[in-house]
Design goal:
- The structure is a single chain.
- This protein is an alpha/beta fold and 392 residues long.
- It folds into 2 domains: 4-123 and 378-387, Rossmann fold, CATH 3.40.50.2300; 133-374, P-loop containing nucleotide triphosphate hydrolases (Rossmann fold, 3-Layer(aba) Sandwich), CATH 3.40.50.300.
- It has helices at 4-10, 28-36, 51-64, 78-86, 99-120, 146-160, 177-180, 189-192, 201-206, 224-228, 232-245, 259-267, 279-294, 317-324, 337-344, 348-351, 356-374, and strands spanning 15-19, 42-45, 69-73, 91-93, 133-139, 165-170, 209-210, 216-218, 248-253, 270-275, 301-307, 328-332, 383-387.
- Helix 1 packs across helix 5 (99-120).
- The chain is elongated and about 75 Å long.
- Mean pLDDT is 83; it is low at 1-5 and 120-129.
């Protein structure tokens, strides 16, 4: 890893002061008081600081100054992550992750700090939310391109915010997000949302698969037996933990209705209803949306995305909107290359960047990315104390 100077450069959005561990008072309690005295928003224990010492100080900070967030640069292990969680550490980043990823992690924590400060200052107009947003993608029937929209939207969002976007495959029985993205996950929704499983931020993060685009994926279960163990109440808790740690959570759901869809809609900030321009499918979608409203699941902002929009068969936007009783917000043209990209395990937006449909996905992502940023501007610059130690 590069030296501490380059790590400081990666924290360009923050006000950073540095402390040499040798200058800290002896003992974790006194060291914690020393670090808390200038009232920083974040204490970052950089590479070269012994993890045991950092965790002891973090535990004292958690008790005496819980408003200070702690980030630790150390080689993660199950034991270290469990100890970090007990001592109030917000995040653990491996030293070999690189300065850019370490910086983006701390900057994400800083954004949450700024948003919390804004909320505590009291309401003023539309209060921004400290948490990330959940975008649930649904369809009344299969074959209308729901997973295509979900995966390509998520990849495009991750391009602007790498390692801050999670795609959850909640099509528990037939989900194939991992196949479409060419991933081989070792964990799934069942890993964290099954009775008896450990449901906490650390376990969730360890269950995510990384895609080269910077997208993180929580895959669907491997088989029907695993799928049947998923508890939708725990799914709601999982969403709550995810939104506290990431900027965007995109949820791909199973076609039709069911308890997993209800959980995903209940948690959602935005609901993308996907349809192709066919009267029967549009009517089914309207009935599904009406059913969600009857259940009281109508808090999320609803958006109608018409896929394969050029194959209208005489249906114009007005007819589509009258049938679904929802305004068309986005349209995506059809492309034969979409299936080819899926078969290769490559996101369509990466495989065919000049395709007209790719432009539609980019516009969709830009709209949701801009909405989240406009609702989540931190007030002021967060202050960070970097206990930098020796470069690893």
């Amino acid at each position: 890893m590069a030296g501490p100077g380059s790590l400081i450069a990666a924290l360009h959005d923050l006000q950073v002061s540095t402390v040499n561990p040798a200058d800290l008072p002896t003992g974790p309690t006194r060291a914690a008081h020393y670090l808390a005295a200038p009232a920083p928003d974040i204490v970052l224990f950089g590479p070269g600081v012994p993890p045991e010492a950092a965790l002891a100080i973090a535990g004292e900070l958690d008790s005496s100054s819980p408003e200070i967030e702690v980030v630790l640069v150390a080689q993660p292990s199950q034991q270290l992550l469990a100890d970090a969680l007990r001592n109030g550490v917000r995040d653990v980043v491996a030293p070999d992750a690189g300065n850019e990823l370490i910086g983006s992690t701390v900057n994400r924590v800083a954004a949450a700090v700024g948003l919390r400060r804004t909320r505590l200052a009291g309401p003023s107009g539309d209060s921004p939310s400290e948490d990330g947003d959940i975008i649930t993608v649904m369809a009344a029937k299969g074959g209308v391109g729901k997973t295509t929209v979900a995966t390509n939207l998520a990849v495009e969002l991750a391009r602007e915010a790498p390692n801050e976007v999670v795609l959850v495959d909640l099509d528990l029985v037939a989900g194939d997000v991992d196949v479409v993205l060419g991933l081989k996950p070792t964990a799934s929704v069942a890993t964290v949302a099954t009775p008896g499983a450990i449901l906490d931020p650390t376990v969730i993060k360890l269950s995510l698969s990384s895609h080269r685009s910077g997208l993180l994926v929580l895959a669907a279960p491997d088989d029907l037996v695993e799928a049947d163990t998923v508890d939708c109440e725990l799914v709601l808790e999982m969403f709550d933990l995810l939104r506290r740690s990431f900027r965007h959570i995109v949820v791909d759901t199973a076609p039709g209705a069911g308890a997993p869809l209800a959980a995903a809609v209940e948690a959602a900030d935005d609901l993308l209803a996907i349809a192709s321009p066919e009267v029967a499918g549009l009517r089914s979608l309207r009935r599904n949306l009406e059913g969600l409203s009857m259940l009281g699941l109508d808090r999320a902002r609803r958006h109608l995305v018409v896929n394969r929009s050029e194959n209208r068969a005489g249906l114009d936007n007005q007819t589509i909107e009258n049938t679904v009783e929802l305004r068309v917000s986005h349209t995506v043209p059809d492309s034969k290359e979409i299936a080819a990209a899926a078969n290769q395990g490559v996101p369509f937006v990466d495989a065919y960047p000049r395709n007209d449909a790719v432009r539609a996905f980019k516009e969709l992502a830009a709209d949701f990315g801009a909405r989240q940023v406009s609702n989540a501007q931190p007030s002021g610059r967060a202050t960070t104390t970097l206990v930098k130690g020796r470069a690893a």
